[in-house]
Amino acid sequence: MTAPALVDFDEVVERFDPMLGLEVHVELNTNTKMFCGCPTTFGAEPNTQVCPTCLGLPGSLPVVNRTAVESAIRIGLALNCEIAPWGRFARKNYFYPDMPKNFQTSQYDEPIAVNGYLDVLLDDGTTVRVEIERAHMEEDTGKSLHVGGATGRIHGAEYSLLDYNRAGVPLIEIVTKMIPGTRERAPEVARAYVTALRDLLRALGVSDVRMDQGSMRCDVNLSLSPRDSGILGTRSETKNVNSLRSVERAVRYEMTRQAGVLLAGEPVVQETRHFEEAGGSTRAGRRKETAEDYRYFPEPDLVPIAPPAEWVEELRGTLPEPPWERRRRLQAEWSLTDEELRDLVNAGALDLIEATVAAGAPAGEARSWWVAYLAQQANSRGVELAGLEITPAQVARVIALVASGSLNNKLARQVVDGVLAGEGSPDDVVAARGLAVVSDEGALVAAVDEALAAQPDVAEKIRGGKVQAAGAIVGAVMKATKGQADAKRVRELIIERVGA
Amino acid sequence: MSAELTRLTAAELAEKIHTREVSAVEVAQAHLDRVAAVDGEVHAFLHVATDAALASAAMVDEGLAAGTAPASPLAGVPLALKDVFTTLDMPTTAGSKILEGWRPPYDATVTSRLRSAGITILGKTNMDEFAMGSSTEYSAYGVTRNPWDTSRVPGGSGGGSAAALASFQAPLAIGTDTGGSIRQPAAFTGTVGVKPTYGGVSRYGLIACASSLDQGGPCARTVLDAALLHEVIGGYDPLDSTSIDERVPSVVEAARLGTSGDLSGLRVGVVRELGGEGYQAGVRASYEEALRQLEKLGAELVEVSCPHFEYGLAAYYLILPSEVSSNLARFDAMRYGLRVDKGASAEEVMAATREAGFGPEVKRRIMLGTYALSSGYYDAYYGQAQKVRTLISRDFAAAFGQADVLVSPATPTTAFPIGDKVDDPLAMYLNDLATIPTNLAGTAALSVPSGLADGLPVGLQVMAPALGEAVMYRVAAAYEAARQAEDGGPLINRVPSLPGGVA
Amino acid sequence: MSADPVTPGGDTGITRDEVAHLARLSRLAVTDAELDVFAGQLEVILSAVSRVGEVAADDIPPTSHAVPLQNVFRPDELRPGLTQEQALACAPAAEDGRFRVPQILGEEA
Fold first, then answer.
1. Contact call for residues B422 and B137 (beta carbons, < 8 A)
2. Closest partner residue to A66 among C74, C99, C101, by Cβ?
3. Burial status of residue C44 (CB atoms within 10 A of its CB: 0-12, 13-18, 19 or more)
4. Is B181 marked active-site?
5. Partners of residue B45 on adjacent β-strands
6. Helical H segments across C1-109, by residue range
7. Residue A169 belongs to a domain
8. Euclidean distance between CA atoms A450 and A454, whole angstroms
9. Residue A287: its pLDDT value, please?
10. CB-CB under 8 Å, B336 with A57
11. Residue B236 DSSP code
12. Which residues lie below 8 Å from residue B454, measured CB to CB, with a gap of 6+?
């Protein structure tokens, strides 16, 4: 069976209305897991962050992490949700080897937060309000490593190896209501929503929100209705969408795929699909022989959560300035145009610049470092800006070294390279690589004199008033000092020496 | 000497050990000898921890020799632990093939409290697989025999613990009671078994049968001994979210008060719906005699009605299997326990292992629970059962408005012959008719011996409101004393001697 | 959680196929002989337990927990867990610090 051809995006939009829904899973950055006292650190040796409870050993019992509940409530409040006055965890029963109890403990029909919204800023400055249906608490699964077969993928593997370090890490699942009326902007809205949510969660300090490490994961639900018909189509759920760019691509691809299916006169199958990073496409998951029946029932090992109003209000008091308000403030403080602000937001640079400014750097310099040189470095390494191995404080230190004249811009970039390469702090790199502007005036004068002597014709020109010819001498001096001279001072010295 | 030691109560043994009249090691050895002599016939134990028991007893002796106060009023007294609590130094099977040889990497809270109290853990006792059953015949490791008549069952699921007490292999034991698994075996073996208030004893490390019903509790040959043990194992545990953060009721004091024999001013509720039709004639006679005795002790008898108790069994056999189906899902051959390497995929290996590792009763209940929780059936079965649960709690609340404690026969019959009901699940379930309402409501209850019917022990059930254990122990102790005075000694002394035993 | 209601106390009529379905859902590779036995037994048990439907309880709240506790939390503090060796000690198979299991059919996580 060959799949119907994809339909051109413009045609899709002409003939169909996309109905978009997003489910985002966020791992909380609590010290310990949802129901036990094991650490949640990413990247530890396998099965070293486990205990009887998160391994699901017989006799073990869960106890709810108070901080995880507080984070969930704060997320709910920041998303303008109502906080449920009473709710229970439920068990979602299904067998899967990465789930030690063969049920997932999750809030099912009694989520902690319901009925909220998030205002999302699009590229052209318009705002879309995305309605939030619910945010609920649950636990993460372990991780499986598939051995044998071609690609390390599950299909064709000979056996699997399980690591339960991640099992039981607190997750918040945030589910939007269907987002109507997005038309050709559906891919953009999806991306803008996930971006806005990420910024909000980062501002709340409740998660690392690292899509590359899986601490933030997105499922895209999409269906198509014949244009202006209001008839709901069958939806697909695309999993494994692990970057902001992929969110946009997954929506676009599903629109063109489903339109192809519908225009070929076939029904869209309600199914789970997987996003393929490489081709930007989605593929169907394995069909289940029987419909899932999760047999939810209230978790008897945990008691209900009934957050007292005072507690909720106290948590409301801890909410940070909402990102959109903060953006407006920073725009004014840093004198940015709308476009400049948007570029910073899109680059994920706002927090980094603000932190760099907080560490003492002037806003202009901080901004220029993050959007220019550091953005290039992030790009060439294929990581997000925040994923670079340099802290805002370190960037501020580099800026300070330039301001004091200890480094010039070229050296400063080398210092940054050193920090990114894991050679330590900016000061460590300066010391280890011997990167400092030659400030020994005597040595500089000697170098200038030497260069002038080597190019007497140039020296003559300068003497004759052609000051711009000094560039060649500056170049020679910089070469002789391996770039560690302050070019401005060199130029002054050349004029001085020639004119003497 | 050795034989005499095994006939003593825990309180008597503790006194002799703490005054250094005998050593804890001698006491432990006497009981280990008794186990060696009679357990071939009774089969109460699945594992005997000889070395660990003697080592633990020796530590108690050392402490006492050094002049240190005993760690608890029961320090040095031996105990038989139901094989459903995890133990670091002993295998833990829950009576199932699927956990054969499993060595838990942690101690249950009950286990660690016993250890800190200086109690000598002799070993682990037999039980129906995952505590599902009323006869111990559903153990994967063979049936336990009733010391009163070895052709009969000792009750279940805690038949091993009860039989160990009745055959003088241990003066104390721990059981768990989900629908009667402590009280019914106590009744069948002429011993005392207590189901504490839900949340009164930590479930951490108790391999779950049905989480909202399970409760660990003390088993002994006297009410006072059970009270002493209750105070050791009871109390708040932050590792169990359903644990009640309140002081353990002063049950020892209450039991001692009860022995004085005066119950005047106390109202005893006679539950109209329990003890009539469907109860063996001998059981009914014993019950009526018990009511007369309670009256003689000064208690005022009040008839109370609990109209929804008759639906308890049905509600219980929906709620329990539902929770079981989920709790037992973790036994899947991936991380611990049995693995049957039949089939190429994890899915097939799981199914083959669970097929081979679970017995028929466990499979029945797993499938029943899976059915009751399925979409389309949830409301009619599980949902409705939870509503009945509410009504039963309300029945209790109303009855406790009229009476301080409630009474009933603990079981409809005395111990039945081995093999009688093993293939008739429903007949087996009827054993728990009188004990189940307490589990559904989370309240407290106990069974205390009330004489014999046709040569076999009968139990009187005393029920109390949540955290109302003190009055329950007081009534039971008073009744026990009066009964013994009338009979000229404890009922348990009439248990026939076993082939291997000298007693 | 509900759809087609069942008649309380009525003929539950659980079929052999339904039992086979339950066994699959429960990951029990039951034999054909067992299917026959279980179908009969489950039928008897179900007709007995469906008595709960005789109770008029429309306005009665369900009880999921026997003791009315709420808001039981744990501070977000580390507690010592198991070592990798302890975690794997009882594993039927292990490799490279991980539990080794047969190939997993089904969805990629």
1. yes
2. C74
3. middle
4. yes
5. B125
6. 16-25, 32-49, 84-88
7. yes
8. 6
9. 63
10. yes
11. -
12. B282, B414
d(CA B63, CA B23) in angstroms, rounded, equals 11
B: neighbours with 3+ CB pairs under 8 Å?
Answer: A, C
**A95 and C CB contact within 8 Å:** yes
CA dihedral A381, A386, A392, A398 (to 10 degrees): 10
- Given a cut of 70, whether residue C5 has pLDDT beyond it is no
- Which residue in the block uniquely carries the two structure tokens 């005997």? B48
Catalytic one among B23, B72, B82, B421?
B82
Max intra-chain CA distance, chain B: 70
* Alpha carbon distance B248, A114 (integer Å): 40
Cβ-contact A319, A74 below 8 angstroms: yes
Report the percentage of chain A scoring pLDDT > 90.
62
- Token representation of residue A387: 């994923």
Q: Show the tokens assigned to B228.
A: 């002493």
Q: ipTM of the assembly?
A: 0.96
Q: Is residue A64 part of a domain?
A: yes
Q: Are residues A54 and A203 in the same domain?
A: yes
CB A107 within 8 A of CB A137: yes
Residues in Cβ contact with A203 at an 8 Å cutoff, skipping those fewer than 6 apart: A320, A321, A322, A323, A326, A351
End-to-end CA distance of chain C: 25
Name the residue of chain C whose CA is nearest to A31's CA. Answer: C76
Pick the CATH number of C16-55 from 1.10.20, 1.10.3470, 2.30.29, 1.20.140: 1.10.20
Does residue B305 have an active-site annotation? Answer: no
Q: Is-contact B122 B241, C-beta < 8 A?
A: no
Using DSSP's 3-state secondary structure scheme, residue A393 falls into: helix
Q: Which of A62, A31, A53, A48 is CA-nearest to residue C77?
A: A31
Note whether A307 and A351 are same-domain residues: no
DSSP state for residue A216 in the 8-state scheme? E
Q: In chain C, what are the domain boundaries?
A: 16-55
Inter-helix orientation angle A470-480/A456-463, to 10°: 130
Q: Which two tokens stand for residue B48?
A: 């005997």
Q: Are residues A130 and A176 in the same domain?
A: yes
Residue position matching structure tokens 């209790």: B396
Contact A280, A43 (CB under 8 A): no
Identify the pLDDT of residue B253. 98
Is residue A380 reached through a cis peptide bond, with omega within 30 degrees of 0 on the bond before it?
no
- CB–CB of B384 and C30 under 8 A? no
Q: How far apart are CA B210 and CA A301, in angstroms?
A: 10
Are A159 and A240 members of one domain?
yes
**CATH number of residue A476's parent domain:** 1.10.10
Q: Is the pLDDT of residue B433 over 50?
A: yes
Place of tokens 């991306």: A191
Reported as a single tens digit per residue, the pLDDT across C11-66 is 567 899 999 999 999 999 999 999 999 999 999 999 999 999 999 888 999 999 98
- Judge contact between A297 and B373, C-beta under 8 A: yes
Identify the CATH number of the domain defined by range B2-310+389-489: 3.90.1300.10
Q: How many CB atoms lie within 10 A of CB A270?
A: 11
A416 lies in some domain: yes
Tokens 């293939």 map to which residue?
A: B423
Q: Is residue A445 part of a domain?
A: yes
A304 neighbourhood in chain C, CB within 8 Å: 65, 70-71
CA distances (Å), C33 to each of A133, A169, B137, C44, in order? 49, 43, 21, 18
Asked if A232 contacts A19 with a C-beta cutoff of 8 angstroms, the reply is yes
For A40, list phi and psi in degrees, rounded to 5. Answer: -115, 10
**Does the distance separating the beta carbons of B346 and A160 come in below 8 Å?**
yes
Instruction: Indicate whether A455 pLDDT > 80.
Output: yes
Task: Give the strands of the sheet with B300-304, arranged side by side.
Answer: B45-48, B120-125, B78-82, B172-176, B216-220, B192-195, B444-453, B456-464, B405-409, B267-271, B300-304
A415 plus A300 within the same structural domain: no
Nearest to B287 by CA among B406, B163, B197: B406
The whole-angstrom separation of Cα A336 and Cα A408 is 26
- Are C65 and A64 within 8 A, CB to CB? no
> Which structural domain, as residue segments, surrounds residue A474?
441-498
